[in-house]
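Feature request disguised as a bug report, sorry. It would help if multi-protein outputs had a clear separator. Right now it looks like this:
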Amino acid sequence: MTVPTPPWEKNEQEPKRPAKVPLSRDRIVDAAYVVLDREGYHRMSMRQVAAELGVAVSALYAHVQNKEELFKLMYERLFVGAGLPEPDPVNWMEQVKDFARAGRERLRAHRDLAWISMQHVPFTPELMPNVERLMAILRSGGLPDRVAAIAGDLLSTFLEGFTLEESTWEQRFKASTPEEWAEVMEQMESYFRDLPADDYPNLTAMAPYMTGETNDYRFELGLDVILRGLASYIDYPDGVQATVKTFDDETRSGSVYLDDGTEVPFPAAAFDAGPLRLLRPGQRVNIVLTDGVISFITLGTFPVP
């Protein structure tokens, strides 16, 4: 016969259950990220988030209205601590690059975050300070307001599209070894290289570069292309120094490199507006940019009007 435990000792012998951690928005977002990494954006559900927390799905709705609000909270969490420095007019391009690099790392921190980011805009009380600072950096570099206003969205579109492609391919080949992935890249290069050269002379010539670059290289190149394009819209009414890249004496047109590396073409009208008869590659020149177009060009030792 089993002797029952005396009531005055029962509480001491029974193990105490750990206190339940109260449900909160932060805990729900934490669990949602776990589910997102496991299931992906398109398969994620509120029921799965509730199961991750060990609660009934109805308990979630005391803290979030629906899955769309949960995605919004996940999006806002993405930018926590993403402060931007004070604008530096001299180094504004590098500041924007650092912002984009950090954004890429944040989007890559969890699977399919780019899908969530693409469906939201950062115009919330929590995120507006970041938007304000980014606009200040772009304007400090001399970008016209009309261009700077679009530039922020352009950068976001590039970031989201690039990281979405990265995430998609990583999921597709997540079970592959580095050797297997290298074999896939070799197959792609061989495909381009073996195309009929008469029909595809450019693709066959470029075969080593079509698939041979790393994602980091592709990202940096894309970022550089965007920023150089934005920089071409900066007006320098008092003239700016540049270096001649090309000049065609028949068309009296060519192109120059700005000191930040941006290549800008100049038309015959800009050459004819100055006192010159000839230009040589490598010469230093003074130019005037108007609405992103060179309207006047002369030697670096000559003044601009």
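(second protein starts here, but nothing in the output says so)
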Amino acid sequence: MSYLLRVQLPDRPGSLGSLALALGSVGADILSLDVVERGDGFAIDDIVVEVPSGALPDTLITAAESIHDVQVDSLRPYSGILDTHRELELIDQVANARDDRLQVLVDGAPRVLRVGWSTVIDMGPQGAYRVVGSQSAPSTQAASAPWMPLEKPTVLDGDGDWVPQLWKDMDTKLAAAPLGNTGKVLLLGRPGGPDFRPSEVARLGYLAGIIATVLG
């Protein structure tokens, strides 16, 4: 079983090695590591680990936080494909798709940006509506989007009046970015968190901008 562990740890030599040893002590193998963000003296890392069958995931949290100044932001099952060029692969897939390019985008975005679901929404005469959604997108849709039109990538208030109650019940973190000047928006949902980091929002905006150019 694989898990995605998001940790905050001191940005100093030896911290990551100590964390790796602690995780190894409970039988966890590190499969990949992505630096999400670096700040003043700290780093936020996403670590994909594999644990033996039957092992309790809580042991990962206990092991990680046994290291001084290490905090676990979130832990959730991970079934994505491990690679180091996720954005480039998705851009290439969208560019080469003959039909339903937006569907290719929303199907690939959760894996690339490590979220639960993604949709593309637009504004029509009756207000906001879903253009396409990933297979994991909730069937319950937002009836309005008062934050549209959107000029730049941003984190959205998950407790806003426009947010469906089901999304709130699942503590869904939300972020969105405009797809160029089309008026359409790529909306991401991360049920149960963690919160979107500024670097993740910037990454979303970068990807959405390139995809908009590809779509023409």
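Even a blank line would do. Unrelated, but nice: The domain at 2-77 is CATH 3.30.70.260 (Alpha-Beta Plaits).
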